[in-house]
Write a sequence for this structure.
């Protein structure tokens, strides 16, 4: 059975509040200060830690069962540099953990649907945003996926989250909300993400339109398809 937060449709439509195409000087300064670069899924990021401890790759069996996942459209320069000297090149091990800063801005206000094989722990630093989680890993044959949506922010009395975990195998997307409910301004949504075991692009894939159609109803697809990254065929 498909389960969806009753506020999903109206909440998703609220995302159109931000449509800027260029960043403000203040936002450009923050991006430069933190050393962020554009992320293929949307937003900006920088890797801040990669544990030197190597652990056995727990995903090898998954790789054998599903060897052809869609690749990201381009690998950021940070990942290219890290991969060149990474002992993971043989795919037998992973870093024990990795951490990044991730930023959504009024000029780059959404992170498109994607999933990681590892679990991701998110910690809020500033701003507000909405997350949409599609629990693809729970789907039984003939069923649609459970959809979860929630707001991250500092108003914990109103149910906003300061920290949240997305387990491996689930698709997630996010988009920027105003800093104050019922207003229009935002200084950006800045979070940290820690992936366990450590992130590798080979453990990541973007959702395709066909996959979304398989996982959700027609009405839900119409409301969520704007969170799909255009992928070349």
């Amino acid at each position: 059975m498909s389960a969806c937060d009753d506020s999903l449709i109206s909440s998703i439509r609220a995302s159109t509040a931000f449509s800027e195409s260029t960043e403000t000087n203040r936002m450009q300064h923050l991006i430069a200060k933190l050393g962020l670069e554009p992320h293929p899924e949307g937003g900006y990021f920088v890797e801040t830690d990669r544990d030197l401890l190597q652990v056995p790759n727990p995903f090898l069996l998954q790789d054998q069962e599903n060897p052809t996942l869609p690749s990201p459209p381009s690998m950021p320069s940070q990942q290219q540099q890290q991969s060149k000297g990474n002992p993971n090149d043989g795919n037998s091990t992973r870093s024990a953990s990795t951490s990044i800063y991730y930023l959504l801005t009024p000029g780059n206000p959404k992170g498109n649907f994607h999933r990681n094989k590892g679990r991701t722990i998110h910690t809020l630093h500033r701003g507000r945003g909405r997350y949409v989680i599609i629990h693809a890993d729970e789907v039984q044959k003939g069923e649609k996926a459970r959809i979860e949506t929630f707001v991250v922010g500092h108003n914990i009395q109103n149910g906003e989250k300061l920290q949240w975990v997305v387990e491996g195998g689930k698709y997630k997307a996010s988009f920027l909300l105003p800093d104050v409910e019922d207003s229009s301004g935002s200084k950006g949504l800045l979070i940290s993400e820690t992936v366990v075991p450590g992130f590798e692009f080979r453990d990541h894939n973007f959702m395709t339109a066909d996959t979304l159609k398989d996982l959700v109803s027609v009405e839900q697809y119409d409301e969520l398809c704007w969170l799909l990254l255009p992928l070349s065929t």
In short: Residues 68-72 have pLDDT under 50 and may be disordered. Helices lie at 8-13, 25-34, 60-65, 77-84, 209-215, 218-224. The radius of gyration is 18 Å. The first strand starts at residue 37 and ends at 38.
